[in-house]
Amino acid sequence: ELVRQSVCRAFPAAEVAEIRPMQGGMSSEMLFVRLSDGQKLVARFPAAYMAEFFSDPAAQEFHTLQAVRRAGLPAPEPFAFGEGILILEYLEGKSTAFPANPSDFLDQMAAGLAAIHQTDLSSGDFKFIPHNKPAHKVPETPNAELGEPEVLRALSRWAEYPPAPSVLRHGDFWPGNLIWRNERLIGIIDWENALLGPAAADLAISRLDVAWILGFEAMDEFTGRYLAHNPIGLGDLTYWELRAALRPMANLPDWAAPYAALDRPDITYPAMRTTLLNFVERVLQND
User: Fold this and answer.
1) pLDDT band at 49, cuts 50/70/90?
2) What is the pTM of this model?
3) What residues contact 36, with CB distance under 8 A and at least 6 apart?
4) Which helix (H) or strand (E) holds 38?
């Protein structure tokens, strides 16, 4: 009922014909909404943890989407927010981790990430998540099976948050947040984690995600293509890769679950565990 009320506030003359669950992220819930006139919308409930940073996470994402769209980035149009719900445009396309042309996929993905990092929103009138928010809540017993103790030890040798130019970051730039149509990248979704910070931090996250879906050779190809679009220094990449490696260690099985809907039922917890351990080994060799 709250979704219907939110939709009616945005489209007073419309009637809701259909509401059904749709594939969402690991921490957020989304509903597909179809109006009687055929228009398609998404009702999005921001992740609960966003309340740590913003009094109204739905409003925050609404204004973020407005800003990135004004800047020319391919984000869905936001229509309304209220009662913890964001109503936004439904993008006609799909997310996939099984590209028909991997090199073209990587180049478009790299260009999309570079475009975000080259967008200046520093003068905006709303706040972002602080980029130096805690990277990882260290558990009482670190996950030795995934190499967490070694990663934490390596991180302890780095000065906290190496200084770097601050750019617009997406915060979770992975295949599940990219929308494709006819093998063209037409949308970037899930902007609730948007923040200002080092470009290498986003790059590190995306590198691990590319390694999971296409392997380490593709990961390095993606990096090269990104640098061709946006040359940046990589002196602190090891630090950000260590932080990226920590992100899934508390709940890696949950990270594996969405891949079936991305055309990759083969990307399971065991497969992701192997890749993550190899990723960590590569990073530690560079430390």
Assistant:
1) confident
2) 0.94
3) 14, 15, 16, 17
4) none
